[in-house]
What we know:
Layout: H1 11-27, H2 30-35, H3 38-82, E1 86-91, E2 96-99, H4 101-107, H5 111-114, H6 128-141, E3 145-152, E4 158-169, E5 176-184, H7 186-204, E6 208-213, E7 219-222, H8 224-230, H9 243-246, H10 253-266, E8 268-276, E9 282-293, E10 299-308, H11 310-364, H12 371-394, E11 403-405, H13 407-422, E12 426-431, E13 439-441, H14 443-460, E14 465-476, H15 478-482, E15 491-500, H16 507-512, H17 530-540, E16 544-550, E17 554-562, E18 586-590, H18 594-606, E19 610-614, H19 617-626, E20 633-637, H20 645-655, E21 660-665, E22 673-674, E23 677-678, E24 684-686, H21 691-704
Helix pairs in contact: 1-3, 11-12, 11-18, 12-17, 13-14, 14-17, 19-20
Amino acid sequence: MTGMDDRPLQPAELRRRAEAMAREKAARSPEDLKEQPPEEIRRTLHELRVHQIEVEIQNNELCRVQQELEASRAKYFDLYDLAPMGYFTVSKEGSILEANLRGADLLGVERKRLVKQQLTRYIVPEDQDIYYLHRKHQLETGERQVCELRMRRMDGSSFWGWMEMGAARDEEDGLPVCRTMISDVTERKRSEQNQVRLVAMLDATPGFVGFADAKDTHILYINPGGRKMVGVQAQEDVTQFKIADVHPEWTNKLFREEIIPSALRDGMWTGECAFLNRDGREIPVMMVLLAHKLPSGEVERFSTISIDITDKKRAETEKEKLQTQLQQAQKMEVVGRLAGGVAHDFNNLLTVITGYSELLLQKIGKESPMHGEVEEIKRAGERAAALTQQLLAFSRKQIIAPMVLDLNLLTADLGKMLARLIGEDIDLKTVPGKDLGLVQVDPGQFEQVLVNLAVNARDAMPDGGTLLIETANVELDEEYCAQRPYQIRPGRFVRLAVSDTGHGMTGETAKRIFEPFFTTKAKGKGTGLGLSMIYGAVKQSGGSIEAYSEVGIGTTIKIYLPRAEGEAVKRVKDDRPTVLPGGRETVLIVEDEDSVRNLGVRILGDLGYRVMQARNGAEAIALAQGYGDRIDLLLTDVVMPGMNGSELATQLVLHHPEMQVLFTSGYTDDAIVRHGVLDEGVSFVGKPYSPSALAKKVRKVLDKA
Length: 705
């Protein structure tokens, strides 16, 4: 076709040609056509026809292109609106010119209402400076800018936005604009924040938190608390270590046969094991070990949370020690109760045996051929009485009369007797404490304590040795007391230490030395009551006792007695010849044991007293009420069925205020004592008593009145 090119015409060119041909046609008039020759007219008409056809073709092509453009634009806007992020066109001044549907949805406002609004309206005020800074840089340099800031919706809620800004020009007016893309990254930011919090939490965790590769056992991570536990410095790369470097049990039976198999089988193992510090210390821990598996089932790594249980293990050890002490105390308490019950009846029998044997000795005289036999009966009774007193001392049922004493004076007074007792082949040394504090104890009881300790020391040194007696002021704190195998309480004490250089004892033997009837001596050489008596006497005086011994070196017994206030009592020995004092006063004897009561009536009656007797409290009250004269003394047993001696005395004194009271008993009872200590002002004579002891005590009480 004339004037046509094989190259397809573009819409703009088609439009330009069509407009030019239309202008040319309009410029021609009919007169111009008449003046032309016929052939020229035909040629012109033909050209017009051809031009018309070309215009129609160009118009059709233009319509097709326009339709394609419209379809392409519609497709573009569909993609624009359906994009997962918000797209905005923002003017140089910061106002929104255009937004896609996702952008409007992100900001929670209709798209048409966004137009001409400032984008900063939808940015949290605290983050607007971030936007201005990046926007300014983008305008000045034209470079693409990316930032994260908090956006806010129309309803006031907020979200984290990832914003990308790029330079462009408006299609219509060609002015510079900013193409801005915004994505909601709230979930990612929350995940990052959680990760930061997790890291902070791990950093603050005092225990061991770690991860290790399951294949080669290389450590992947250890938290600061874990590093400190195993002695790894903060700057060290933990990935250079393997589990065996921090865990001594990695290769042992526990790890190989229990921990790892359990974790692989169940996904988790929980139990106690240990970590290894670089200084060589094994640190006991409570571990939770997790096995992390891939979808294929293969274990990828191990993770652990382990807590240091050193304090817990120490507490368990202390608990076991206390439990052992409690069991020992309970065992000794049971034996003590049994001993007290036996001693009550036994002392009544011994009172009769020793009492009548002494009366018989006085009657028959030394010239009698039976004197020796009766003397043996009396000595046997006295030995039995001594054993009973040891039982009562152990069980803390012995009745004592404590007084404030200086232990230095007590040990000095006993020095000569102890030297004779232990023999010449044992060197007795005493080291008195300087400015020694006072103690409140029963002097006779503690003389017996020293004698028993000296006898035990002598028996432990058959070939001779040294016996050392020391006194000192000490203060015991809680830490020291907590470490002792025996029950010792903190405080200010006077310590009495008795040491020997004998054969010593094993640890197991030393734990049992205070048990009654326990002895390491040969059969017939000891009763096993000596140290148990000492134990009871010390406890009854409010003190504590401990033993330390090593085989081949010797034994030390340490007694801690509470410091006492006041002045020490000076003890005066009565060296006057023994004379049984008598009298003419009236004495009422109340005793439920017939043989003991009859003995008392016999002894006091022979000494000139007027004696009345009753078997119990009710009988005594009836007898006293029917007696019209003065009753000078009530001699009553403390432990009786029905009314005890203390209750009886209270009632009788109301009707006979002139009457004095003398109690007697074979063991302690709370009626007249507190934990074995006599109440102040109470007169007491213990069973078994001899005729001379009873006579002296009765006379002393009556004279006091």
